[in-house]
Amino acid sequence: MTHRNERTLTVGALARVEGEGALYVRVRGPDVEEVRLDIYEPPRFFEAFLRGRAHTEPPDITARICGICPVAYQMSACQAVEAACGVTVDGALGELRRLLYCGEWIESHALHIYLLHAPDFLGYPGAVELARDHRAAVERGLRLKKAGNALMEFLGGRAIHPVNVRVGGFYRTPAPAELAPLAETLREARADALATVEWAAGFEFPDFDHGHEFLALSADRYPLERGVVRGGTGRVFPAAEFERHVVEEQVPHSTALHARFTDGGRYLTGPLARYSLNRDRLSPLALEAADRAGLGAECRNPFRSILVRAVEVVYAADEALRLIAGYEPPARPAVPVPPREGTGHGVTEAPRGLLYHRYDLGPDGLIRAARIVPPTSQNQAAIEDDLRRFVAARLHLDDEALTRRCEQAIRNYDPCISCSTHFLDLTVERS
Amino acid sequence: MGRPTLAVWKFASCDGCQLTLLDCEDELLALTGEIEIAHFLEASSAAGDGPYDVSLVEGSITTPADLDRIRHVRAVSRKLVTIGACATAGGIQALRDFADVEEFASVVYARPEYVATLARSTPIAAHVPVDFELRGCPIDRRQLLEVLAAHLADRTPDVPSHSVCFECKIRGNVCVMVARGTPCLGPITQAGCGAICPAYARGCYGCFGPSPAWGGGRPNTRGLLPWLDMTEGEAHRVLSTFNVTAFREGAPAEGRGDDAPQ
Ligand code: SF4
Ligand code: SF4
């Protein structure tokens, strides 16, 4: 990056995000001329090497796009392949999928809340340093994360890249009695999650609202593993129409593609969107926690996303307990999914937002083309826009303080930079 | 004497292997009493300049800039341990090695010229000396703790190189191949995971790479084919995943397999 005569500031690396990126801000006088979130995570070409694979392979392969939310990749992939083959997986198998997804939400949100995000509000570089003064809180966070992992390990075989997920369902489904010890763990997790909401509600949140349209799934329950896509301004469409509404563009500075609506306009996906569009679908316990934390009918302050995540952890633990209590073992671990020629679409709610997959299958059941649109690329334009306004209102801060606030502002979105996009070099150029 | 310092680095990868360190929830705080995590950007924005006693390196080398960065990591690390299939075998992104990377880029990007990438995805040991390679996609938490403990005690890590079948017997799994005729790569795959897949009634898919117990890591997959009850195309695909370059020596056919479109 060229600094020349202009006053520049470079922070070695932005930490506590997942993946690699850099932030570049150019300021001239009172104006913020340019804000660029450069995502330079090396491309891994998943969409290219899925071609020629069997229709049964995407769940194991696409899990490797992200170690933090592999279940999201597995669920969107299964849904898309099943849609292409004309098969619907519902009933007890569908509920088990939702249960597994609850595990990932608990694990991923707990990781973000305690290890990545909370240190910002309390003024520490990371959770290890935070633990020196707030040991009980960090232990609670680790316990919570472990509960999510326990659920994933039990149902999925392991927490990172679960092995038990297949197109059509699972390889092995549990007997009801096996779930009893998990329920005990989840009851503790629910109590820890409620304590987390209360803890985070005491943080100080900068005043900052964004005006982007929200986009989230919507269903009869709080959205997780299925639903139709709904926008804040009334647009509603099924997964199959995703590409009619959303286009991805490549920008020179990033290996993550930028998404926007085909009719122009940025949008935001993720916890704020989910909460604001589906608050009435939260469980009574989660809704009560949201009210106590002061979250209104909608939440447009990205800094408060930590509260929304905490509420979603309450919901996920609560929902997991409900699913376990109602569990009737399915007749068989998976329904058969014979391949056929066709195209299928799948969209689910990864912890960071909408994750869309499309597969075109040939008559031999092999994949002819694949398309994957992760949450980070959908949110990138909105993040840049937020940063532009955020920086513009804080130009009076010195470089160091401004840098810290920008880092925090980016972490609000928990950008999973490895799905598209770990390090964020921050450069502020002033002249 | 201060605590030994640990650094964690990332190259092309999914973050899953370094997440394994954070997934040691019961041990993490105790571990940080023994080891100072001096550089771990996924976990902390406090990053010292090194040198570091141990570096854990995740991910494979795929861009021109990576080449310089891995030399820097080696220069600032007393011991360098690679974690995971990406760092030890090139990972799933090494599928580009057998394809035309420009064509790959054109499938994903409208303007592939904006993307700087190397034609191959190579393991860390292809570029700098490596002190220990921990396998898996992802690595196993217990093995990671063993490697760190071994370093603290200055001994060799106790990480087995026998096949998954051994672990299957220890775990008391019913053999999915014998009992159900399900194809399983367990016999040729290195142990370490605890035989998870057979425990979940599916065949092993080889995420720890070939067991060196087999002909120096070159399993005779062609001889194994009739036993696996797979077509060459299927066998080719199952071997062409997270350890594609490590398994490639024994892979049955070039190209995408005989039942794939030519
Ligand atoms: S080896 Fe597997 S789990 Fe580890 S970083 Fe690579 S893709 Fe992720
Ligand atoms: S199930 Fe697979 S790994 Fe286990 S004993 Fe049989 S062949 Fe070996």
UniProtKB/TrEMBL annotation, chain A:
Entry binding sites for Ni(2+):
C66, C69, C416
Residues forming coiled coils? none
Residues annotated to bind Mg(2+): E47, I372, H422
Annotated Pfam families:
NiFeSe_Hases (PF00374)
The cofactors required by this protein are: Ni(2+); Fe cation
- Which InterPro entries does the protein's record reference? Ni-dep_hyd_lsu (IPR001501), Ni-dep_hyd_lsu_Ni_BS (IPR018194), NiFe-Hase_large (IPR029014)
Q: Which GO terms describe its molecular function?
A: ferredoxin hydrogenase activity; nickel cation binding
**Could you tell me which PROSITE patterns the record lists for this protein?**
NI_HGENASE_L_2
Q: Which Gene3D superfamilies match?
A: Cytochrome-c3 Hydrogenase, chain B
Q: Where does Fe cation bind?
A: C69, C419
SUPFAM superfamilies found in the cross-reference section:
HydB/Nqo4-like (SSF56762)
Q: Which UniProt keywords apply?
A: Iron, Magnesium, Metal-binding, Nickel, Oxidoreductase
Q: Which family does it belong to?
A: Belongs to the [NiFe]/[NiFeSe] hydrogenase large subunit family.
Instruction: Output this protein's name.
Output: Coenzyme F420-reducing hydrogenase alpha subunit
- From which organism does this entry originate? Actinomadura luteofluorescens
UniProtKB/TrEMBL annotation, chain B:
What are the record keywords, sorted? Oxidoreductase
Indicate the segments forming the NADH:ubiquinone oxidoreductase-like 20kDa subunit domain, all copies.
14-150
The secretion signal range is: none
Which is one GO molecular function term here?
oxidoreductase activity
Q: Can you say what this protein is called?
A: Coenzyme F420-reducing hydrogenase gamma subunit
The species this protein was found in: Actinomadura luteofluorescens
What lineage does the source organism belong to? Bacteria, Bacillati, Actinomycetota, Actinomycetes, Streptosporangiales
